[in-house]
């Protein structure tokens, strides 16, 4: 309580990371069922909507709790003590009141209210460790708009903003994600204290490491700079250049933030908008406009500076927590713009950005050339920051940080100085982002998400605020942790949270040196999952790039287990061509950038004979680029974007799962045979959802011209409240709904829809795979149509064999779960590769590729599946059935009337493949 509010914000952010990491480690990322009490089931049909009884009870109970809290704070002696303690703690302490205890109890009560809200929301939303991750940003906005310290303000603002967001979803869905932050920015411009907030003295500048430290002389700094430059010049001889380039980009980013946080004393929680905005512009300029890399980087830097001017004009007159929240609001607007804008590529981002030739001389496709260009940019940016903070301008910034009223009394226009520093910081952050886009040949949503702003604050804290070298050390420590501690999975998040907490509580001067020593001693990041070679030197390596952390970890974990079973079976039978197999797993974190980096490092260090493809389609495209560059075989077993095999296809990529087109077409063919004519399509609002919906509608109308799609309803990834979408579907009055939501999104939608009686009298078809059905339990909608790539319960009935039974046994013994299609497809990928190697009688990649073309797969899904030569797509199909409970699976909803639509019936005609790819000969050139 003695610290500035901003340190309290950072402390709670660190605690949230710790708790989130621990829960994800213990319970995983998938949701757990939380049934509605029987007494509150059902609902009330109103004139304009269906209102579930449980939601009505939550509304009434929540209002009672809110009013009770307001009464306690505003109308009781305890509340009077609390308000006095927050406004003038020194005076209250003089009256003998224990202020620390009072503040601590108040904080505990606030945490209890948050926990109560989570319990109330549990039956409505998905119960998982991430259920509050994105909501917390909205909660910040509600509190700031309502006014810090105003309970009634939070109550009224929360209700009003909920109504505003709901109406926006109906009348202008594209703006529903940003409307809260637009309102927040407007309110803070007009009334900085919030709508119901009381005028208060703004918090001062943040305490920093350099405030009381001895000032470094120019000579000392230059010696340190020279040593740093020499070390970085020779570093590529000992460390992977791609890792160094990533660390240098983030080091420059951290230095840019430190200019504001360490030398002006203003915490920006929106610096990701400059890094990510410049990254998108630079990538677009290089790929679409064809600009050389130097101009692309300059374009990104200029746009970041422009963003700095626009956002600075809005935020710079705010201070303390209000400045941080305003920058966060502006950054969230840019994030949702980037998610929806056409030129950004949405969830996929801008990929395959050409590195080009700098100044017409330096070919950046050469890794070492690229590294020295990045190093030059970093050193130039570092020297620029050093010159700024050691100039008369920089001395004024330090005076503002120490005592802004005194600086004003001396005649300085402090707002102008802070504005100039903000724009300079934005431009330098943009230079880091633009350079990063060229290095990794990618611009993605990761760089513009608010969590990136938190990550760079952590880097700066670790290194030390207000020090010139601290942010560099902090950036290298964090990037090293992300790379070399990846084998610890969710524990990495816990470690980062612990460091955040320690830095805020005890080491605000920075602990970069100590952390560097610790990180240097940890194990290599390679995770050998199973190893049983005949001789270590003769072992064959398979690299698996997948999501072991993040929202896609459920699918990644299943795929890893399936691949482990395949490797174990092969090793138990003498390996492949007499050589044992090692499976090496690397975490792509669900990020295209991380996936590409992990693939390149795996290829360089591990030298795998084959790469197993990732979960996410955008990661697959990024990993595919690395495979193409190095001529390394890649087999996709989960991600199924058509682009990977069509316009982005190449000789070394294969797929053993049905593509988005094939899955959509299979469902279209099946539903065309049903007695339904009016359809609504429900799906995620990004490329996967749209492409599969297009394929469904095309096949549906081709086989049954009387059918029509009367509406398409799109949801955003990770959405928690589907009420408006359910109402929109009901109002369209369809005969049936085709849904291509999947995973946790589908589970959350199903629970909410079932609670509202949505499935009564309406035919619903969706990707109810085994994982979704296990998560739903008794909430699975009986009678709904389900489709899946490899449901074990259907396979063991339609193509029974000792092999599928052994697979089910092994998977259950390892996970205590039924195997999902993700595990089965990963198993098939390893076994099909092994069959190709045996056919070629060599591990040579070119020979194995030739053997794979036209090969009959070795598959748990049965015989008759081959790989087409023209696009390397396996003719695997989709299983479709009706959800029904089976006595053989008392804890899992099974299917009845299952059919299998073979891939030969639904894959894209060869003429269309040729048209999409220009010419089929590109594949084998």
Give a structural overview.
- It is built from 34 helices and 19 strands.
- With 925 residues, the protein is of the alpha/beta class.
- It has five domains: 1-35 and 455-523, no CATH class; 41-190, no CATH class; 241-448, no CATH class; 526-658 and 821-874, Response regulator (Rossmann fold); 660-788 and 877-924, Rossmann fold.
- A seven-stranded mixed β-sheet has the order 14-13-15-16-17-18-19, with helices on both faces. A six-stranded mixed β-sheet has the order 7-9-8-10-11-12, sandwiched between helices. A two-stranded antiparallel sheet has the order 1-2.
- The longest helix has 27 residues, at 414-440.
- The chain is globular, with a radius of gyration of 29 Å.
- The protein starts with a helix and ends in an 8-residue tail after the last helix.
- Residues 200-217, 515-537 and 919-925 have low confidence and may be disordered.
Short description:
The chain is built from 34 helices and 19 strands. With 925 residues, it is of the alpha/beta class. The strands form five sheets. It has a seven-stranded mixed β-sheet with strand order 14-13-15-16-17-18-19, with helices on both faces.
């Amino acid at each position: 309580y003695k610290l500035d509010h901003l340190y309290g914000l950072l402390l709670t952010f660190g605690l949230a990371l710790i708790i989130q990491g621990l829960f994800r480690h213990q319970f995983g990322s998938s949701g757990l069922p939380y049934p509605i009490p029987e007494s509150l089931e059902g609902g009330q049909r109103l004139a304009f909507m269906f209102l579930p009884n449980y939601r009505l009870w939550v509304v009434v109970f929540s209002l009672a709790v809110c009013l009770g809290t307001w009464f306690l704070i505003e109308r009781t002696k305890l509340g009077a003590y609390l308000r006095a303690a927050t406004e003038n703690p020194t005076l209250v302490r003089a009256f003998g009141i224990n202020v620390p205890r009072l503040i601590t109890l108040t904080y505990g009560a606030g945490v209890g209210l948050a926990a109560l809200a989570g319990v109330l929301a549990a039956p409505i939303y998905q119960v998982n460790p991430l259920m509050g991750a994105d909501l917390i940003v909205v909660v910040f906005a509600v509190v700031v708009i309502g006014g810090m310290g105003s309970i009634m303000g939070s109550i009224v603002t929360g209700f009003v903003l909920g109504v505003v967001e709901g109406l926006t979803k109906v009348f202008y869905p594209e703006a529903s994600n940003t409307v809260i932050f637009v309102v927040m920015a407007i309110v803070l411009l007009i009334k900085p204290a919030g709508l119901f907030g009381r005028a208060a003295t703004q918090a001062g500048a943040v305490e920093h490491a350099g405030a009381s430290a001895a000032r470094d002389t120019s000579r000392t700094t230059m010696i340190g700079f020279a040593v740093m430059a020499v070390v970085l010049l020779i570093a590529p001889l000992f460390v992977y250049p791609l890792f160094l380039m990533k660390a240098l980009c983030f080091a420059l980013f951290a230095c840019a933030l430190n200019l504001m946080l360490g030398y002006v004393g203003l915490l920006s929680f929106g610096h990701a908008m400059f890094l990510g905005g410049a990254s998108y512009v630079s990538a677009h300029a290089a790929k679409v406009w064809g600009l050389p890399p130097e101009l692309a980087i300059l374009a990104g830097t200029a746009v970041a500076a422009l963003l700095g001017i626009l956002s600075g004009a809005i935020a710079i007159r705010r201070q303390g927590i209000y400045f941080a929240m305003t920058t966060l609001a502006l950054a969230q607007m840019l994030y949702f713009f980037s998610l929806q804008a056409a030129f950004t590529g949405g969830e996929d981002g801008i990929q395959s950005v050409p590195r080009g030739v700098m100044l017409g001389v330096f070919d950046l496709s050469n890794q070492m050339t690229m590294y020295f260009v990045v190093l030059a940019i970093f050193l130039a940016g570092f020297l620029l920051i050093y010159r700024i903070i050691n100039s008369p301008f920089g001395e004024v910034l330090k005076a503002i940080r120490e005592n802004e009223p005194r600086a004003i009394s001396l005649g300085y226009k402090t707002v102008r100085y802070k504005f100039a520093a903000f724009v300079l910081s934005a431009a330098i952050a943009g230079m880091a982002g633009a350079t990063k886009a060229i290095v990794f040949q990618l611009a993605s949503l990761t760089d513009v998400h608010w969590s990136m702003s938190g990550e760079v604050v952590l880097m700066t804290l670790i290194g030390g605020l207000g020090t010139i070298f601290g942010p560099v050390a902090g950036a290298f420590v964090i990037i090293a942790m992300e790379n070399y501690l990846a084998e610890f999975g969710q524990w990495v998040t816990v470690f980062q949270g612990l460091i955040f907490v320690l830095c805020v509580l005890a080491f605000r001067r920075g602990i970069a040196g100590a952390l560097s020593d610790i990180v240097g001693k940890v194990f290599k990041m390679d995770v050998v999952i199973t190893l049983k070679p005949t001789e270590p030197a003769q072992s064959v390596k398979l690299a698996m790039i997948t999501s072991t952390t993040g929202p896609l970890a459920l699918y990644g974990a299943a795929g890893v287990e399936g691949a482990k079973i395949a490797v174990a079976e092969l090793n138990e039978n003498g390996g492949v061509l007499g050589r044992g197999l090692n499976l090496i797993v690397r975490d792509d974190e669900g990020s295209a950038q991380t996936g590409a980096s992990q693939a390149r490092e795996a290829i360089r260090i591990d030298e795998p004979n084959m790469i197993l493809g990732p979960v996410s389609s955008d990661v697959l495209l990024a990993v595919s680029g690395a495979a193409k560059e190095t001529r390394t075989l890649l087999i996709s077993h989960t991600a199924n974007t058509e682009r990977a095999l069509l316009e982005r296809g190449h000789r070394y990529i294969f797929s053993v799962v049905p593509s988005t087109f094939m899955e959509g077409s299979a469902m279209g063919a099946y539903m065309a045979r049903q007695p339904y004519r009016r359809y609504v399509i429900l799906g995620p609002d990004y490329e996967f959802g749209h492409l599969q919906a297009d394929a469904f509608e095309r096949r549906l109308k081709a086989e049954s011209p009387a059918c029509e799609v009367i509406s398409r309803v799109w949801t955003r990834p990770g959405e928690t409240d589907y009420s408006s979408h359910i109402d929109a579907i009901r109002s369209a009055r369809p005969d049936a709904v085709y849904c291509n939501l999947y995973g946790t999104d589908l589970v959350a939608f199903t629970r909410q829809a079932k609670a509202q009686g949505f499935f009564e009298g309406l035919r619903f078809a969706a990707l109810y795979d085994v994982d979704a059905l296990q998560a739903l339990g008794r909430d699975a909608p009986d009678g709904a149509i389900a489709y899946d790539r490899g449901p074990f319960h259907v396979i063991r009935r339609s193509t029974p064999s000792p092999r599928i039974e052994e697979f089910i046994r092994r998977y259950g013994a390892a996970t205590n779960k039924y195997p999902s299609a993700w595990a089965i497809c990963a198993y098939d990928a390893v076994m099909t590769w092994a069959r190709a190697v045996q056919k070629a009688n060599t591990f040579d990649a070119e020979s194995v590729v030739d053997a794979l073309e036209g090969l009959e797969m070795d598959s748990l899904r049965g015989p008759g599946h081959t790989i087409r030569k023209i696009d390397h797509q396996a003719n695997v199909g989709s299983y479709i059935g009706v959800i029904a409970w089976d006595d053989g699976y008392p804890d899992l909803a099974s299917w009845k009337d299952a059919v299998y639509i073979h891939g030969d019936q639904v894959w894209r005609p060869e003429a269309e493949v040729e048209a999409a790819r220009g010419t089929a000969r590109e594949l084998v050139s």
